[in-house]
């Protein structure tokens, strides 16, 4: 009889422990779910911000292309003027040399 009561008491204690563990596990799951949800919300906010930044850069992209082309065009223009100057200088020297040889 005593043995049966002790077994029942130990079973009751085990059941109480298991239910306590289950409730703590469910609390852990709830806190984990909350953390996951908050992380997902933060991630969604970051994605929205990235999309907004991309939209801003895409809207500013044509102006950036024009600026890049303008810089390249200015550089090309200066380079062509410099090349024409060197060509003029070399032709002028060769004409003077030819006149000096003939004269």
Percent strand equals under 5%
- Biggest pleated-sheet summary: none
| Tally of strands | 0
Give the mean pLDDT.
76
Structural class assignment: mainly alpha
Q: Tell me the Rg in angstroms.
A: 42 Å
Fraction of helical residues: over 70%
Distance between the termini: 143 Å
Tally of DSSP helical segments = 1
Question: What is the general shape?
Answer: rod-shaped
Low-confidence blocks of residues: none
Order of helices and strands: H
Note the quaternary state here.
Answer: single chain
Task: Offer a few descriptive terms.
103 residues; mainly alpha; 1 helix; rod-shaped
Notes on the structure:
There is one protein chain. The chain is built from one helix and no strands. The model has no long low-confidence stretch (mean pLDDT 76). 98% of the residues lie in helices and 0% in strands. The chain is mostly helical.
Task: Walk me through the topology.
Blueprint: H1 2-102
At a glance:
This protein is an all-alpha fold and 103 residues long. The chain has one helix at residues 2-102. The protein has one helix and no strands.
């Amino acid at each position: 009889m005593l043995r049966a009561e002790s077994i029942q008491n130990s079973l009751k204690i085990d059941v109480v422990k298991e239910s306590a563990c289950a409730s703590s596990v469910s609390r852990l799951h709830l806190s984990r779910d909350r953390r996951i949800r908050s992380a997902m919300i933060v991630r969604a906010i970051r994605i929205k911000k990235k999309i907004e930044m991309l939209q801003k850069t895409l809207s500013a992209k044509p102006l950036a292309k024009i600026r890049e082309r303008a810089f390249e065009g200015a550089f090309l223009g200066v380079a062509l003027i410099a090349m024409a100057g060197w060509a003029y200088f070399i032709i002028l020297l060769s004409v003077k040399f030819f006149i000096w040889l003939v004269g």
